[in-house]
Amino acid sequence: MTASTTPRPAAAWNRLAAVGAIAVAGTLLLTGCGDQRNKTGNEAGPSAQGSSAPLFAKLPKSIQGTKVIKVGSDIAYPPVEFKKDGKTVGIDPDIAAALGKQLGVKVEFNNGTFDALLTGLRSKRYDIAMSAMTDTKDRQEGLDSKTHKKVGEGVDFVDYFNAGVSLYTKKGETKGIGGWDDLCGKKIAVQRGTVSEDLSKSQSDKCEKDGKDKISMEAFDNDLEAQTRLKAGGVDAVSSDFPVAAYAVKTSGGGKDFEIVGDQVQAAPYGIAVSKDNAQLRDALKEALDAIIKNGEYEKVIKTWGVDAGAIKEAKINGGS
To answer: What distances in angstroms separate CA 92 from CA 71, 81, 144, 152, one per listed residue?
Structure first.
């Protein structure tokens, strides 16, 4: 969601927080990721079923020919997508695998830095981008989130999940931070190109308008780097999507490294990004998502990862604001 001057508490935060303890089950493992050039080599979904799959005929001819959908993803965002035992796992890969069954294709995850995913999509390196990406009007229209000036082609989103943004600090060292209004004069780490970065910039502007010190912000290629910076004491807080923040708090150092402070804000949909000129693929994905919601595969994935509060009941195109 496009950042506002004052972050809004998510309406369902209490419900999400209650689920958070489940969402971050300790059976998952944190791991790092490669760079923009690296391909995971892992494929989500069954062997290509071809025309026997329910929605194979809905796909563009080019994908029918290869029987592969190439996904751009920042595979360092547990529990949404991350590496475990050499495989790409998480909420997104599991949902993608279920979509692949309906479409009769393999869904191949390719690793890249988050802020370069849409560029890779526009250059046809990927067919879609699926990486806990918030569906926003700015991204739909290709606008810079700060200036709202045109910086590229927009994309369409097929919305598949809902999540907000959280702050966390070193455990027992909150430094008076109880929410976004307490960040003036503090240092924060974020992942580059995310809504967390947008929120931090907007909040820093608000601090200065109120006659307070601005926020010192450090942006990293992935969330794990931001966590490492916090652990080292280089920043006072980190901002991440709520499922990711809760997972980090639960698992890092056996739950002894971090704590969440304040309420979740800016609840918004995650979307699968598709090029504007690929409406056929967009519509096929929407139909496949509705199909797995109806047949229970979507609910199975959501329950497996314990993120029931973020579940949707129907697929939407460009539902973000």
So the answer is: 10, 6, 26, 26
- Name residue, tokens 């050499």: 86
CB neighbourhood size of 100 (10 A):
24
Distance CA 245, CA 168 (A): 7
- Write down how long the chain is: 321
Cβ–Cβ < 8 Å for 143, 151: yes
Q: How far is CA 140 from the centre of its chain?
A: 16
Q: How far apart are CA 226 and CA 171, in angstroms?
A: 15
How far is Cα 102 from Cα 292, in angstroms, rounded to an integer? Answer: 8
pLDDT, tens digit only, all 321 positions of the chain: 333 344 555 543 333 333 343 333 333 333 333 333 344 444 555 444 567 899 999 999 999 999 999 999 999 999 999 999 999 999 999 999 999 999 999 999 999 999 899 999 999 999 999 999 999 999 999 998 778 889 888 999 999 999 999 999 999 999 999 999 999 999 999 999 898 999 999 999 999 999 999 999 999 999 999 999 999 999 999 999 988 998 899 889 999 999 999 988 888 999 999 999 999 999 999 999 999 999 999 999 999 887 887 899 999 999 998
Q: Which two tokens stand for residue 2?
A: 């496009």
Task: Compute the distance between CA of residue 31 and CA of residue 226 in angstroms, rounded to an integer.
Answer: 14
Residue 213: DSSP 8-state: P
Which residues, including other chains, have CB under 8 Å from residue 85's CB and lie 6 or more apart? none
Half-sphere exposure of 247 (CA within 13 A, CB side): 26
Distances, alpha carbon 291 to alpha carbons 102, 134, 190, 254, 294, in Å: 8, 22, 35, 38, 5
Under 8 Å between Cβ of 109 and 77: no
